[in-house]
Amino acid sequence: MSDIVTSESLAPVAHRGGIPQLWTKSYAWLRSLAAHPDPLVEANNWVALTIGSHLPFWPLYVTGIAGSEAWPSALLTIALTPFFLAIPLIARRSGFASRIAMPVFGIVNTIFTMWVLGINSGTEVFLVPCAALAAIVFRRSERWLMLCLTMAPLLIWWALQTWPLPVLQEFTGTVARDLKVMNVFSVALLIVAFGWFQVGIYGKMEDAAAR
Asked: What pTM does this model have?
């Protein structure tokens, strides 16, 4: 089993029977799914699983703010969930491809959700963690690819400001404000998670260098 900090320091204490045992077994399965010899790939897998497991709850957050009339469009926000959950499977075939796919899927998901919820929802702030992720999952020898994928969200943001997308459902007033606040908080939590996973990358690399 991988010794990356994201896998070890978050491990729950095993308990016997019932929900604790189910949680322990589920977490062990997630650890095995995310595990990879390359610490960059493993951290990338954890990011993908974090986002993929969170997206199914997004319609509940949106309807909690915007009301039941937003339910049909809110359901669409989970459409790309399988793509994120597939990242660890891609990594088993090619860790390099999975590290490219993750920020690309993030950008596509952001643009898609902007179309669903509209520009007033503040969904474009999710382009920031897309750039941040691209900045931490590539090696020095891959810096030109890193640069392209880090700059892409900025260029896409500029393009969408210049040529706005038509929107499926537009929110205004306090609903739009509250959706924007929710999105900003979500981005902040993602950045914190990236930092945690980055510590895991450094820890595993330091352990390898010490051997």
From this structure: 0.84
